Amino acid sequence: MTMAEKFWQWEHGERIRWKYDDHGALVRQFDAGADVTIFTRPPYEVYDEHTYVTFSDGSQTNFNYKGEEGW
């Protein structure tokens, strides 16, 4: 099982409120070595924000501002 898969299991168990918290800090609670990039598409509103994560094992995932996987 990849760290990306384990991350979504962890996230579900933690009941994280993505809309109100720092995505990078939350991801690093799970994997301190993760690379987190937040991309906001024009017109640069919170609804257009996506977080891309590469975990320390090389697996990847992405999610929107609400923590919904993919887009």
* Molecular shape: globular
Order of helices and strands: HHEEE
Question: Reading side by side through the largest sheet, how are the strands ordered?
Answer: 1-2-3
Radius of gyration: 12 Å
Question: Could you provide a short overview of the structure?
Answer:
The protein has helices at residues 3-14, 23-30; strands at residues 35-40, 49-54, 60-64.
Question: What this model shows, in words?
Answer:
By secondary structure, this protein is of the alpha+beta class. The chain is 28% helix and 24% strand. The protein is built from 2 helices and 3 strands, in the order ααβββ. It has a 3-stranded antiparallel β-sheet with strand order 1-2-3, with helices on one face. Strand 1 and strand 2 form a beta hairpin. The radius of gyration is 12 Å and the shape is globular. The two termini are 22 Å apart. The mean pLDDT is 89.
What attributes characterize this protein structure?
single chain, 71 residues, alpha+beta, 2 helices, globular
Can you lay out the helices and strands and say which pair or pack?
Blueprint: H1 3-14, H2 23-30, E1 35-40, E2 49-54, E3 60-64
Antiparallel strand pairs: 1-2, 2-3
